[in-house]
Write a structure and sequence with these properties.
Blueprint (H helix, E strand, L loop, with lengths): L2 H11 L1 E4 L1 H9 L5 E4 L18 E3 L4 H7 L8 E6 L11
Parallel strand pairs: 2-3
Antiparallel strand pairs: 1-4, 2-4
């Protein structure tokens, strides 16, 4: 599976939130189905691996690469997938 492609599809057709704080809130509330964190995201942000059973996927790229994968002109340290839309992104596991 091309993770970058699936991230872009999820952002375009599903429901996602960007940023570590917003992603943590979505995961803690149980709203998120998956949280994707870049390798440059401070590890203490998502220590403990799961929030209410929400899987954490460790993206191999930097914040800038995650932003590019999401089709955004800015860096993204983390994003939460609320609804995957037409993407198969939920099949990746942390």
């Amino acid at each position: 599976m091309d993770v970058n492609r699936e991230i872009r599809i999820a952002v375009n057709t599903g429901d996602t939130v960007f940023g570590a704080k917003e992603s943590k809130e979505a995961a803690a509330s149980g709203e998120a189905k998956l949280v994707i964190v870049s390798k440059k995201c401070p590890e203490e942000q998502f220590k403990g691996a799961k929030y209410k059973g929400v899987p954490i996927y460790h993206y191999e790229g930097t914040n800038k690469q995650l932003g590019t994968a999401a089709g955004k002109p800015f860096s993204i340290s983390a994003l939460a997938v609320i609804a995957s839309g037409e993407s198969a992104i939920l099949s990746v596991k942390g």
